[in-house]
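forwarding from the other thread:

> can someone predict this with S-adenosylmethionine?

sure thing
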Amino acid sequence: MFLDADALRHSAEVFGVFLDETALARLDTYAAFLAEYNQKVNLTAITDPAGIAVKHFEDSLALLRFLELPQGCRMADVGTGAGFPGVVLLIARPDLQLTLMDSTKKKLVFLQQLLQKLDLSAAVLHTRAEEAGQNPSYREQFDVVTARAVAELRVLAEYCLPLVKTGGQFAAMKATLIADERKNAAHALSVLGAKVEAQQDYALSNGDGRSLLLVKKVSQTSPKYPRSSALIAKKPL
Ligand code: SAM
């Protein structure tokens, strides 16, 4: 085994997630493939087995403690990078109908090979989230949209909320969410038809702090949003 399976099983249990033998074997394959692939193509700065287990896998699994995902629900992971949290959640919950989105092609090439190795299926989309948000195939189609370490909250909200169905949820995962970032995003959330449900601050098994902001989509997003990438960057909501 590449990973310490007992340590990973235990740290997942702390977040109420029970990993069976298939899930543990898939996580091991994932970690070994990520470390190997990263020698040729830079995907992540964290490549040691303990770092991958805690900072990528445990952190992704922690979401399951705070977010209820109905059986077979439609989920999109925006700016998924090397698959966090999306692919880890799919390993724990293979019933999810998952779409992985990223604007960087090399990440998607990795994800396609990874999913094949894991014998799991998900849609893999090379797109900017704000372009998907204006495409009827994706706009307001997802029960849940996740994003970890992608952008400042008010910008991230415009990327992600147009993809969420009314009544669905958006989960923003951050290393730390400071009050100022939340305050700056209040206008964007309201304009996009959403409101904050809860902020969950938690610690990983190595002591690192993390924040999760759970946002509920309460009404349809105006067709004006998302705006173009240039406008979002120049004039964030
Ligand atoms: N979520 C992964 C994680 O936690 O390890 C990757 C985080 S990485 C810092 C940010 C990722 O978001 C990159 O892979 C980048 O290509 C992607 N990204 C940034 N802006 C995006 C956008 N507007 N639409 C889609 N992907 C985006």
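The pocket of S-adenosylmethionine is lined by residues 78-81, 84, 101-104, 107, 128-130, 148-150, 159 (CB under 6 Å). thats all i got for now
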